[in-house]
Write a structure and sequence with these properties.
The longest helix has 34 residues, at 452-485. The chain folds into 6 domains: 2-95, no CATH class; 111-178, no CATH class; 186-193 and 556-588, no CATH class; 199-214 and 453-551, Chitinase A, domain 3 (Roll); 239-250 and 357-446, Chitinase A, domain 3 (Roll); 253-350, Chitinase A, domain 3 (Roll). The two termini are 28 Å apart. By secondary structure, it is α+β, with helices and mostly antiparallel strands. 53% of the residues lie in helices and 18% in strands.
Amino acid sequence: MLQAMRSSAKFVFWILAIAFIGGFLLFQSSGLIGRSAVTPTTAVASVNGTDILYTDWQRRSSQLIQESQQQSGQSLSQDEQQRLENQAFDEMVQDILLQQEYRRRGITVSDAELRDYARFAPPRWITSAPELQTDGQFDPAKYQRLLASGQARQSGLLIALEQYYRSEVPKQKLAEQVTAGVYVTDLDLWRAWQDANDSASVSFVVFRPTPTAADSNISEADLRKYYDAHKEEFDRAGRAVVRVLSIPRVVTPADSAAVRSRLLALRAEIEGGAKFEDVAKRESADTVSGANGGDLGKGPKGRFVPEFEKAVEGLKPGELSQPVLTPFGYHLIRVDSRSGDTTALRHILLRIQPSDSSESKIDRQADQLSKMAAGSDQPAKFAEAAKALGLKPFTVTVTEGQPARFEDHYIPSVSAWAFSGVKPGEISDLFDAEDGYYLAQLDTITPGGKTFEAVKGDVRARLARDRAVERAIPQANALSTAARASSLESAAAAQKLTVQKTGLVNRAGAASTFGSVGEALGAAFALPVGAISVPIREQDGVFVLRVDARKPADRVAFEAKKKELRAQRIQQIRQQRLQAYFEDLRQSAKISDRRKEITAQLKRQSVS
């Protein structure tokens, strides 16, 4: 049954989704349920008093999900859907904050401005349109003729341009106000140039002690005192412990051989006169390129995985490859044209999947698992199903907002489900993924946030580390004193310590070697050559270092590039200022986010 459902899922998914949403809204707004219903006017959030309606958020989320699904050619996991739902929410919050800021600053856009922007500042999606280019460059004359034609109105181009500029012009005006007056002096440019181009060679000894049990023996009062002074550093996401049952889809050598044989049969069909494009549309598992006859576009080398690139290099235009195996499956490749390093090509992809008999066996087992335990709120059913089917559960600790992983293997949908309002002991639905089926049971869940109890372990670890580092300072002092009297190498040898060397590196290279961007990095570019530093304390260790050589930045090269550097730096500062402005705008906003509450409410209503 699962196999049959999977083969038709692509066509029925959106029909079911539309029917569900329509039925859901009718049910929720009909008054048939006895508790505060989620209706079309329910606010999922409030931003400075402006509501975001649940239905509007769902509509925007569904649009993003549909677009992503069409691009990928396959259904999305709950993790991916949750990411897009969060993206939709963030975009809606940003839109409201921007509109509120436009009103506060008196930013408006006149019809005359819209016309000028449309005529003289076309957006990228216009300038990159092939039909508006001449010799590979945007042709303004062609664009002006298009704007003046009846086609522009009939095709909806003028409406699209108006919507685009009504959204983008206020953003541009706001950006100009926020970044007005940005300028970079020669001195600032030179310091930035030095940061990137000064080089030093440094020898150093670092003490990174491991906290002991005594270091971790910290009173509750000291933990809370530290937490109260550093609350903002301990904001953390929620965590959950989940047990998972897996039924993997195992691909055998025979399965791989069967797919290769199938691709050879398609190759013979094309050599016999069938059009490559027609076969790609009919057979290719890459639904995006397949819909365009297998077209992968025109581009330079390095676009694809190495196995694919190597096969392309050996093909002449019009020649068909032999089956090419990559991590995605078997490919049949044809190069359409080649000019220098630019190649236009097509492919047909067949994925390697278990044989029908193996798939049927896996599906039957998954059906049994689903019937025995999926969606249950009776914890015992999880263990009973595992025992009956001979499946061994494994435990995963998941972090809210991050996909679940077990031994470097991605477990789809489990993380999003665990934080969707379920309670410990509840069992998930059966998750169907390309590599198999998954069923999860929530063991424990710890909400995110800054509560002392939620982060007490992290506070203890931080204080224990600080105590351990503090204990290392006397030994570092002894080393520094001995090194001044002899050498860093001999003093280190006497204490059986290792002297590390950076070689000649800039600040970024030194930071990478140190594992730190604090005072030790500053000392590496400030100490006189040959001088031994005093102990330099960092968060996780203590450094004693010596500068062996230093190469200053080239002033002549700087003067030659100063104009270019100023333009780059001004643009960088503007971007940083805008980003900081938007972050401050959001942090200072009063945002009431009810998404989790409403999701949990809907879940309770669905089972009542």
